[in-house]
Amino acid sequence: MPRPSWDEYFMAIAEQVAGRSTCIRRACGAVLVKDKRILATGYNGAPRGIAHCDQVGCLREQLGVPSGEKHELCRAIHAEQNAVVQAAKYGTQIDGSMVYTTHQPCVLCAKILINAGVTEIVFRDAYPDQLSQDLIAEAGVELRHFPRPEGE
């Protein structure tokens, strides 16, 4: 087996992190990286001490909220948000880092990543949020699609 590129390596870790997700609709994972070193990881799920959607059901499904809309109507914190929170909680400096994420960030995550000083976002799957893309571009953050290998 050939040695994976850095993109392949960190994206595979993001996919593995997504396996911890408790979201019924979409499992997401994120890995904050700087100088080829993992700083923090995050997956989508309910905040500490709150029942997860896989236990109590999905509020967004119950209300018929489509993807890309009304992000506040959800029990979960997003993977990118969780990674930034974990870095802050443990005092890990993330300014100048990049993030590998299984899904293109929503507008809320984009704003958090921009303000946290993330300089590059590498994502696997698209997400329907044009405002997110516009803000990322305006902030000068590189947004790079790293598609799934063919046949996967």
Q: Which residue ranges are poorly predicted, with pLDDT under 50 across at least 5 consecutive positions?
A: none
Helix content: 25-40%
Find the structural class using helix and strand composition.
alpha/beta
Shape: globular
If helices are DSSP runs of H or I spanning 4 or more residues, what is the number of helices?
6
Output the helix-strand order: HEEHHHEHEHE
Strand content: 15-25%
Give the integer mean of the pLDDT values: 94
Radius of gyration: 15 Å
User: Strand arrangement, largest sheet?
Assistant: 2-1-3-4-5
Distance between the termini: 17 Å
> Main beta sheet, described?
5 strands, mixed
Overall number of strands: 5
Question: Briefly, what is this?
Answer:
The chain has about 150 residues and is of the alpha/beta class. The protein has helices spanning about 5-20, 55, 60-65, 80-90, 105-115, 130-140; strands spanning about 30-35, 35-45, 100-105, 120-125, 140-145.
Overview of this structure, please?
- This protein is α/β, with parallel strands linked by helices and 152 residues long.
- Helix content is 35%, strand content 19%.
- The chain contains six helices and five strands.
- It has helices at residues 6-18, 53-56, 59-63, 79-89, 107-116, 130-139; strands at 29-34, 37-43, 98-103, 120-125, 142-145.
- Strands 2-1-3-4-5 form a five-stranded mixed beta sheet, with helices on both faces.
- A hairpin with a 2-residue loop joins strand 1 and strand 2.
- Helix 5 packs parallel to helix 6.
- The longest helix has 13 residues, at 6-18.
- It starts with 5 loop residues before the first helix and ends in a 7-residue tail after the last strand.
- The mean pLDDT is 94.
